């Protein structure tokens, strides 16, 4: 079974190869030394009991930067990249990947950086 979160991360990197910020994409955890980058997290991915291999739920993308405006701008830039229907990404057939809201920018952290977050609705088949 392919990992849908890794597929999303790789899709972001592929679609934004010209922007070095997108080279720093991570899955499920930022390394402790990273002050700028993108994190993709799974959030409540549920198997459908009636349709074998069908999964529906949510995932989250977090953009971390030392600058508040940059965190927001990168989150706004990646959001349309992850809005799609009926697309195969990383060997996984996504029926839906759709942002649920405008990026939320959080106050400066104790680590002296900002994070902007977008949650996505997702449905995919991984069989």
Provide an overview of this structure:
The radius of gyration is 15 Å and the shape is elongated. Strands 1, 2, 3, 4, 5, 6 and 7 form a seven-stranded mixed β-sheet that branches. The protein is of the alpha+beta class. The protein is built from two helices and seven strands, in the order H-E-E-E-H-E-E-E-E. The protein has one domain (about 5-125): STM4215-like. The longest helix has 12 residues, at about 5-15. Strand 2 and strand 3 form a beta hairpin.
For this entry, give a set of tags:
single chain; 127 residues; alpha+beta; STM4215-like; 7-stranded mixed β-sheet; 7 strands; elongated
Please provide a brief summary of the model.
The chain has 127 residues and is α+β, with helices and mostly antiparallel strands. It has two helices and seven strands; from the N terminus they run αβββαββββ.
Number of domain modules? 1
> What would CATH call the class?
Alpha Beta
User: Which residue ranges are poorly predicted, with pLDDT under 50 across at least 5 consecutive positions?
Assistant: none
Number of strands: 7
Summarize the main sheet: 7 strands, mixed
Instruction: State the CATH architecture.
Output: 2-Layer Sandwich
Structural class: alpha+beta
Radius of gyration, in Å, reads 15 Å
- Annotated CATH topology: STM4215-like
**Distance linking N and C termini:** 7 Å
Strand fraction band? 35-45%
Could you give the order of the helices and strands? HEEEHEEEE
Averaged pLDDT, please?
Answer: 92
Provide a count of the helices. 2
Taken from the alpha-carbon principal axes, the silhouette is elongated
Helix content: 10-25%
């Amino acid at each position: 079974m392919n990992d849908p979160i890794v597929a999303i991360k790789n899709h972001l990197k592929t679609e934004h190869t010209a922007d070095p910020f997108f080279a720093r994409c991570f899955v499920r955890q930022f390394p402790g030394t990273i002050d700028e980058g993108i994190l993709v997290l799974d959030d409540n991915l549920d198997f459908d009991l009636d349709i074998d291999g069908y999964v529906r739920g949510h995932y989250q993308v977090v953009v971390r930067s030392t600058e508040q405006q940059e965190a927001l701008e990168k989150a706004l830039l990646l959001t349309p990249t992850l809005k799609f229907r009926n697309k195969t990404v990383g060997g996984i057939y996504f029926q839906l990947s759709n942002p649920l809201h405008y990026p939320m920018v959080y106050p400066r952290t104790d680590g002296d950086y900002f994070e902007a977050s977008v949650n996505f609705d997702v449905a995919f088949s991984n069989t």
